[in-house]
Design goal:
The chain has 623 residues and is an alpha/beta fold. The chain is built from 21 helices and 26 strands. The strands form eight sheets. Strands 2, 3, 4, 5, 6, 18 and 19 form a seven-stranded mixed β-sheet that branches. Helix 3 links the parallel strand 2 and strand 3.
Length: 623
């Protein structure tokens, strides 16, 4: 099936300088001086609803006192894939530890109505060929993803030693036994030779710090803790029939709210959608998987598709490349490829980036025109239009979101002028000086993605050699080797977006990191090496290399509307007074994903664990 170029307006029809100024003005309206402090962790009466698992009862168990080879902190995608690669490497002495009641991570906690992955499931769900599984449609439902994750954990025997409903409180290196002491809220004292931090991005919910939030007498919950007992319906059948006589408000119009709002609008007596910054919402076209297409697939098809997604979103489609994904994520590069094929390719990188910026404005204008074509009320349509560059916020798609605002029981309340909801009262909330009485407030306010590391990880203490805190060690920027180890923290590994190569398919990033970490652990165990950690020289060289080769996106970040992509627009400064902007993808390897993977493969093929200090029984060791 041919992927068609979208019908974007011609560049000649746009006043790009005027749009650039409009974007700037709209950003300034929304920037809050508090930055991340405008959000808070659940506290007081809220904390119980976040600490207690609504999906699975906590099982009583005895505290553990044991020695083990590896502890993997997390059982979402990153922790699951780390466990898979440890198993494949022949390592069986390990545990996954997670606060949740099962494997799944974000797909365990998030069970709100309409929850789906918002990019191509044929790329996003890893190991499809190995598992013999095919998603039922292009954008899988949350329960399908959760079930698939559980099937992987079952296939690789990860349930046997997994510890659920267990929260790690302290992680400290004990030099006397050359192990990590893992302390938990269940009284465990686990002594692990190696620790893999695979805590994920979307695991700690955050709430807007609204004055009076604790005064509200009605029902409140975060979308990551959806209360079907209150709303009616269920995770797999979200008929929210108990809302028929309820006035409901939802804060947020990001990726989560885009999916939940159509269900709330359909069932609630009254729905208020409180929006600070609108999202881009393209059509979904979530078609069922075609069995005839599946029969045409050849071995290696998923890797080929993931590579195509990487090209079409982050890199560049070359002449003759198809767009196998064909959705909002790939639109800009798809359109550029079509135009360049007709008009000739740019001769310089600067010319290419200039053309790409123009296409960015054209695509965003198409998306704004889509709002006008669906939403009947002109004022509502105007407030739903996004005024920023394409990747300033996560692109969304949904076929029912905009039409929901045509319902008489649904009202959009734009709170951009006050930079959020002004206050909450016993009976409801205040916006633009007016009090609205409601029965339920739902927070679609996201997660701790780019906030301070201790807030993101939720572990009170992580201390390496000589009591060195990872939070202080990384306070002014990541210090790693390949983004997966850090000096001063022997036998400790990180899976996530820190300082390395990142793939457009998030799970593929975690998959390759899990492979690399498992290789190092296997080599250390087989060679009877006690500890491995980066040398100072190797770490310094890597940090220097990744920064010297980095693509400078700081200006783009500064111009973006506040979101988790740019730390809510909050400028920060290092100890030398230099401004630094925190990007949710950490520090990405400038030469690209392919170059980074080749670098890692060459490093493993060399076989000497180059750049790692190796100790056996406290003495430096080379083999």
């Amino acid at each position: 099936m041919t992927c068609k170029v979208t019908n974007v307006p011609p560049a000649a029809n746009l006043d790009i300088p005027a749009l650039r100024e409009k974007y700037r003005q709209q950003r300034e309206i929304r920037v809050r001086k508090e930055g991340q402090k405008q959000y808070v962790r659940p506290m007081d009466e809220f904390s119980e609803s976040y600490e207690v698992d609504p999906h699975m009862p906590v099982q009583a168990r005895d505290s553990l006192n044991e020695d083990i080879d590896v502890v993997v902190l997390g059982s979402g995608w990153s922790g699951l894939l780390a466990g898979v690669h440890l198993k494949k490497s022949g390592i069986n002495s390990f545990r996954n530890i997670d606060h949740a009641g099962d494997f799944g991570g974000v797909w365990y906690w998030n069970r709100y109505p309409g929850v789906q992955c918002d990019n191509d499931a044929y790329c996003y769900l890893p190991m499809l060929e190995e598992m013999g599984f095919m998603p039922s449609k292009k954008f899988s439902d949350g329960y399908e993803i959760y079930d698939y994750i559980r099937s992987i954990a079952d296939r690789f025997g990860l349930y046997e030693k997994a510890l659920f409903h267990t929260l790690v409180s302290r992680l400290t290196w004990d030099e006397s036994i050359q192990r990590w002491r893992v302390s938990t809220n269940r009284g465990d004292d686990i002594r692990a030779r190696f620790v893999v931090l695979a805590n994920g991005l979307l695991n700690i919910p955050k709430l807007p710090a609204i004055p009076g939030i604790h005064d509200f007498k009605g029902k409140m919950f975060h979308t990551a803790r959806w209360d079907y007992e209150f709303t009616g319906g269920s995770y797999r059948n979200p008929v929210l029939d108990k809302l028929a006589d309820k006035r409901v408000a939802i804060i947020g119009t990001g990726a989560t709210a885009i999916q939940a709002v159509p269900y709330l609008g359909r069932f609630a007596k009254q729905l208020y959608v409180l929006q600070r910054t609108p999202s881009t919402v393209d059509e979904r076209k979530n078609i069922p998987t075609d069995p005839a297409w599946v029969k045409t697939l050849k071995p290696g098809w998923q890797k080929e598709r993931q590579e195509n997604f990487q090209k079409a979103t982050i890199d560049t489609l070359a002449p003759g490349d198809p767009d196998l994904i064909c959705d909002i994520w790939t639109e800009i590069n798809r359109n550029l490829l079509a135009e360049f094929s007709q008009e000739g390719w740019p001769t310089t990188a600067e010319e290419f980036m200039a053309r790409r910026e123009v296409m960015d404005y054209r695509v965003m204008e198409r998306l704004r025109q889509r709002v006008d074509s669906i939403v009947k009320d002109k004022d509502t349509a105007a407030n739903l239009k996004p005024w920023y560059r394409f990747l300033c916020k996560r692109p969304c798609s949904n076929d029912d979101f905009y039409s929901t605002f045509n319902r008489p029981n649904v009202k959009l309340i734009d709170v951009s002028s006050t930079r959020g909801v002004e206050a909450m009262t016993e009976k409801g909330f205040v916006a633009d000086g007016q009090e609205y009485e409601i029965d339920c407030m739902i927070f679609a306010s996201g997660f701790e993605v780019t906030s301070d590391l201790d807030r993101r990880w939720g572990i009170d203490v992580i201390e390496g050699r000589n009591g060195l805190s990872i939070y202080k060690h990384w306070a002014d920027g990541y210090k790693t080797l390949h983004g997966m180890m850090s000096r001063g923290f022997p036998n400790q590994f990180y899976i996530g977006f820190y300082q390395g190569g990142f793939n457009a398919t998030t799970t593929e990033t975690f998959n390759r990191q899990g492979q690399h970490v498992a290789y190092i652990i296997k080599e250390a165990l087989s060679r009877r090496i006690t500890t491995v950690e980066p040398s100072q020289e190797a770490q310094d060289n890597w940090v220097r290399h990744i920064r010297e080769t980095a693509i400078d996106i700081s200006q783009f970040q500064r111009e973006c509307t506040p979101s988790y992509f740019n730390n809510e627009g909050e400028a920060q400064f290092d100890d030398k007074g230099q401004e630094k902007l925190r990007w949710y993808l950490g520090e990405s390897y400038g030469p690209g994903w392919g170059a980074f993977q080749q670098l890692m493969q060459d490093w493993r093929d060399k076989g000497d664990l180059e750049g790692l200090e190796k100790r056996k029984d406290g003495e430096f060791y080379e083999q």
